[in-house]
Amino acid sequence: WYFTPAMADAAAQKKFLEEKEKQEGVVKLPSGLLYKVLEQGQGTDHPRANAPCRCHYKGTLIGGEEFDSSYKRGEASVFTPTQVIKGWTEAMQLMVEGDKWQLFVPPELGYGDRGSGSSIPGGSALVFE
């Protein structure tokens, strides 16, 4: 026998991202990452790749299934932009202190075809706030 990871429906992931791209206020970067500014921060500096950043976030699949939440843990997570998925790396380096964004991460900027654990199937688009 062999193990085949669960895969998300590619057409549904693509359609979801295409619909989000059409929404008012959503910005599409050349990489395919989509984001919407929910709150403008007061900071002026963008973090460097190795700068520790304190972040609160909630991560969901496109159907709303939550797979991680620093809010539920009761404390922000600390990591550098190089310690996270590609979509986060790109977004974090564009943000300033106090920004609150919603990210729509295509599979290739998230966990790709491999997924992550049992909660994120391969090929999943991800939503973070």
In short:
The chain has helices at residues 10-22, 70-73, 86-92; strands at 26-28, 34-39, 53-55, 58-61, 66-69, 77-79, 100-105, 126-128. It has 129 residues and is α+β, with helices and mostly antiparallel strands.
Would you kindly provide a written description of the structure presented here, covering whatever features stand out?
It comes from Alexandrium catenella (Red tide dinoflagellate). One of its GO terms (cellular component) is endoplasmic reticulum. This is peptidylprolyl isomerase. Helix content is 19%, strand content 25%. It contains 3 helices and 8 strands. Strands 1-2-7-8-4-5 form a 6-stranded antiparallel sheet, sandwiched between helices. Strand 4 and strand 5 form a beta hairpin. The longest helix has 13 residues. The N and C termini lie far apart (39 Å). The model has no long low-confidence stretch (mean pLDDT 94).
Please report the first level of CATH classification, the CATH class.
Answer: Alpha Beta
CA-based gyration radius: 15 Å
Mind telling me which CATH architecture this is?
A: Roll
Based on DSSP secondary structure assignment, what is the total number of beta strands? 8
Instruction: Please tell me the overall pLDDT.
Output: 94
Stretches with pLDDT under 50, minimum 5 residues: none
Query: Which class of secondary structure composition applies to the elements?
Result: alpha+beta
How would you describe the shape?
globular
What strand order characterises the main sheet? 1-2-7-8-4-5
| Biggest sheet architecture | 6 strands, antiparallel
**Proportion of strand residues:** 15-25%
Whole-Å distance between the termini?
A: 39 Å
Count of all domains: 1
Helices and strands, in order, run as HEEEEEHEHEE
Number of helices: 3
User: What is the fold-level CATH name, i.e. the topology?
Assistant: Chitinase A, domain 3
The helix content is 10-25%
